[in-house]
Prior knowledge:
The chain is of the alpha/beta class. Helices cover 35% and strands 24% of the residues. It has nine helices and twelve strands. Strand 3 (57-60), helix 3 and strand 4 (80-82) form a beta-alpha-beta unit. The longest helix is centred in the N-terminal third of the chain and has 17 residues, at 18-34. The two termini are 18 Å apart.
Amino acid sequence: MKKILGIRRSPEFSPNNTGNDSAIFSLTVAELENKGYKVRQLTEEEFFHMENIEESLIFSMIRNKSNVEKLKMLEKSGKRVLNSGRGIENSFRSNMTELLLKNKIPHPKSLILPTVANTKSAFESLGKNLWIKRGDFHTVHKEDIAFCKNHEEGNSILKEYALRGIPNAVLSQHLAGDLVKFYAVEGTPFFYWFYPFETNHLMMGAPDIEKTKHYAFDENGLKNIAAKAAKILDIQIYGGDAVISSDNQIRLIDVNDWPSFAPCRNQAAKHIADAIINI
Length: 279
């Protein structure tokens, strides 16, 4: 029987999504076992302390930075890993922002600032309404993403980040339009999108300032932009958020490595299992 190693995400890295992250992992394991694979499951903590990994194929939802480095080392030794350690690291907020902007992915104007900086110039160059997000990692606490209307608020947020040991933050202009959330699996036909404001699936920290207006947009266009971004980040199991403007433009505001797939996990699990097998 072919053996695969699966590593669950630690609950501390699943803000408001512990059950959903666990569910998509378990469904993926079930699909792999139905295909004849034997899956050994580890927690992030167990993986951290494991010295010898015999499996040549690994799928992982990890977020701990030390574990990401361990994944990268295993890949260098010849293990096949999905998502890769490099892809997970690329998805940290500041890394993601730099890569998307550098590769001209449609994205809001953004700046990456040290948390000791004054945000006044950022508000002058980006606009009055900005999103401030911790740059060194993913969103873990509700304070890690904030909507700000002036530089006084912005400075307060950065100061709080600095006190928590967060070195930098991403400041992005607020985009008016419809918020769309999507999930996808590279190498498969799976692509799912929906309007989160209509399903109570809201972004952490999102203000109640706009209602969905259902602006027309090209679904294949969204799919292609998301796929290009995922390729740049080197992630195969991914999701994210986009804003559709009144003039039908599509701009990505976030891309995540292995999200929860909460509204579509039963459909997604089979495709995720296929992607793992076909690395």
